[in-house]
Amino acid sequence: MITRRGLIVTGGATLLAGCDAWSGSPVLLSAEEAHRYLQRSINGRAALAREFRPEQRSPRFRTNGTANPNTPEYNALAANRFADWRLQVGGLVARPLSLSLAQLRSLPQRAQITRHDCVEGWSAIGKWQGPRLETILRLAGLRDGARYIVFHCADAFGQRRIPYYESIDLVDAFHPQTILAWAMNDAPLGIGHGAPLRLRVERQLGYKHAKYVMRIEAVASLAGIGRGKGGFWEDIAGYEWYGGI
Amino acid sequence: MQVYRHRLITRIWHWVNALAVLVMIPSGLMIFNAHPRLYWGNYGANFDHAWLSLPRWPGWLTLPSTYDLAGARHWHLFFALVLAFSLLIYLLWSLANRHLQRDLRFRRDELSAAHLAGDLRAHWEMRFHDPEDPRAYNLFQKASYALVLFVLLPLLIFTGLALAPGMWPWLADLFGGRQSARSLHFIAMALLTGFVLVHLTLVILAGPVNEVRSMITGWWRSPEAEPGE
User: Fold this and answer.
1) CA dihedral defined by A233, A105, B166, A231, rounded to 10 degrees?
2) Which domains occur in chain B, in start order?
3) Is residue A187 part of a domain?
4) pLDDT at residue B229, rounded to an integer
């Protein structure tokens, strides 16, 4: 006999299973674009993220994601305090660059005390210092057609050892608070936080702040990089590419 | 006797909002499961003091039903737009058609202690409608609807917006920092869940067929007309 209770339980279970399957539907995914458009319209493309005073920093800034890339290549670089490390800048640029840490430190610097917001929900506040990404992109000179900046990292995350990468568009690439940080809380970046260099893109969630950056590439399209969604977590789990939400 | 109780815009908003809330709470609980700790202030992570630390919500209460932070965010961020914009349209419309002023405004005589006691006694005796004016909301109805419309839903929307790193930074400041906003978001959700449970209970006690029908067709049958129901 079909009872009302039976119907509700079966119907509920079917509905729940159906809902799980709809989690990646194009209708739901369209919200990312809507939020990006709304945020940039009402907040402004150049609006600054909140900056804090030194005493407002987290007493202890937890690490997340890869704690140590631990590859032979990376370990060799780390053993030498990254003296042999070079940041490669290429792709759609007029002048490909190869920059040492000393060169990055000699560029005009920006220091900022900002809040790091993880997609999981926690926040930590720390001080970051490094050259603005804009400075480096102007040195290299973007060629026509460049629309995204991709950050290739030294770490491969998870059991499948898929290389970490991230990407941002030119609005965020040229934002004044978007820096390549080599220092955190007035000390060289530790290995847990992405030594020797990590991206800070302050108006987006933590997974966008690529650590262990080895190579920067200017591209016209994100297709063909990784699985084409613009970042490691975007490819693997389906996180939003626009991490401002 | 039939009375026309809910206008079309009220009925449409009610069901759109009900669906949005039905999605927002379970998907929000899944997002909460990614870091089931709450803090006050600007920052808060594993090494910091949490004022509330809960076990993870079970799968039958979350959307999706198995751990899927990305999927939960897809649901939550889509229906956040539905919730916010439908509320905005509804409130503006209800100001224009005078629903808010006419039906939700407290009258001075209602606020007397005697009236309050009378309303409380009527609820206790399960008399939910004034036989003199069956269309009117009673004091507790007005108060709870006003609390949801003007406090809880806006608070949920604005604390939710404050969590977005790309949003106005002053919004998080307004709530005492991003982690405070996250705590308030959770507290407002808990209060809204309480409202939903009481609301559903009272719908059942007041006659579920008549109440649900009135929110679909707009027409509500006065209990005196149908003593059997």
Assistant:
1) -20
2) 2-225 (1.20.950.20)
3) yes
4) 41
Q: Write the ipTM.
A: 0.93
Pick out chain A residues at pLDDT < 70.
Answer: 1-14, 16
Count structural domains, chain A: 1
pTM of the model: 0.94
For the segment A52-64, what is each residue's pLDDT rounded down to a tens digit? 999 999 999 999 9
Of B47, B163, B168, the CB nearest to A43: B168
Taking the Cβ of residue B131 and every Cβ of chain A, the question of whether any pair is shorter than 8 Å is answered with: no
Q: Reduced to 3 states, what is the DSSP secondary structure of residue A200?
A: strand
> Is residue A115 included in any domain, yes or no?
yes
The answer to whether residue A92 sits within a structural domain is yes
Q: Domain limits at A218? A: 49-236
pLDDT tens per residue, range A118-154: 999 999 999 999 999 999 999 999 999 999 999 999 9
25-44 of A, contacting B, C-beta below 8 A: 25, 27-32, 34-36, 39-40, 42-43
The string of pLDDT tens digits covering residues A31-59 is 999 999 999 999 989 999 999 999 999 99
CA atoms within 13 A on the CB side of A92: 15
The amino acid occupying position A161 is R
Residue A95 lies in a domain: yes
Using the Cβ of B74 and the Cβ atoms of chain A, whether some distance falls under 8 Å is answered with yes
**Tell me, what's the pLDDT at B1?**
78
CATH number at residue A176: 3.90.420.10
How many other C-beta atoms can be found within 10 angstroms of the C-beta atom of residue A241?
A: 22
Contact B165, A205 (CB under 8 A): yes
Q: Are A245 and A39 in contact (CB under 8 A)?
A: yes
Peptide bond into B58 cis (omega under 30): no
* Closest chain A residue to the Cα of B50, Cα to Cα: A122
- Considering only CB atoms, A123 lies closest to which of B45, B66, B167, namely B45
Residues of chain B under the 70 pLDDT cut: 223-229
Work out how many CB contacts closer than 8 A connect A with B: 140
